[in-house]
């Protein structure tokens, strides 16, 4: 039988204890007060009635951050049928008492009232912490499966050491070969803005457009975006970094489908690594990829440092 507990909506008075519990429990995903403010409280879809705090012995024993879009996300719109649980924990000393299940069910009940038909764990754009549940959180994997969450694909985070990086000779030769076809590589400048945005809107996700626009607004696009163009001066590929403000974060990267066999993506990657190294950035990483993309990055010297299980549940 569970001991006395309460589940309440988030209030600012819980923040300090909540962050302490988060850092003690989610040991691979610590958070600062500043980041909590930015990614939780200042998220445009934050709703304190979906951000539930578990109180036991009148102390913060757990937290479950549920989300339902209140504002459209670019071309995805409101995604009316979808909800998310962005992050959840129960402190170690309160685990095994049924508190976690009670907390999860309460968030699910509130999302159902919001007409949600499917809940995704973690992978909430744009302010996700992780794309899924890290395989190192073994108890969490079992917990969510016992509560009806269904496994999807696995995703990985990858990294690369740039301390001794140099441009591969093969890449240099490919750059020269592509010059003969009129394909050239450049850093971003204002003259490319319209063509780049049109290219990304046509070929890729709206979130990628958002990343480019943010870099332009912040005055950082010239130092973070590289472009490939063909002999007709059309943009056929690009890559960028620093989409979350961290200099070392790589991506996204994309190449026009019809020219993906030419090695343009690999050249953009290597050029970006070199540009980062020039700026004194000695490692590169990104948070999320899967499938064939993993092999692309492995060929270019990146290695997996975290693996996640993705989950969804129909409700």
CATH superfamily of the largest domain: Gcn5-related N-acetyltransferase (GNAT)
By DSSP, the count of extended strands is 13
Q: Return residue spans where pLDDT drops below 50 for at least 5 consecutive residues.
A: none
Biggest sheet, in brief? 9 strands, mixed
Number of helical stretches of at least 4 residues = 10
Task: Give the end-to-end Cα distance, rounded to a whole number of Å.
Answer: 26 Å
Order of helices and strands: EHHEEEHEEHEHEHHHEEEHEHE
Helix content: 25-40%
CATH topology grouping of the largest domain: Aminopeptidase
Can you walk me through this structure?
- The protein has 315 residues and is of the alpha+beta class.
- It folds into two domains: 5-154, Aminopeptidase; 164-281, Aminopeptidase (3-Layer(aba) Sandwich).
- It has ten helices and 13 strands.
- The strands form two sheets. Strands 1, 2, 3, 4, 5, 6, 7, 12 and 13 form a nine-stranded mixed β-sheet that branches. The chain has a four-stranded antiparallel β-sheet with strand order 8-9-10-11.
- The radius of gyration is 22 Å and the shape is elongated.
- The protein starts with a strand and ends with a strand.
- The model has no long low-confidence stretch (mean pLDDT 96).
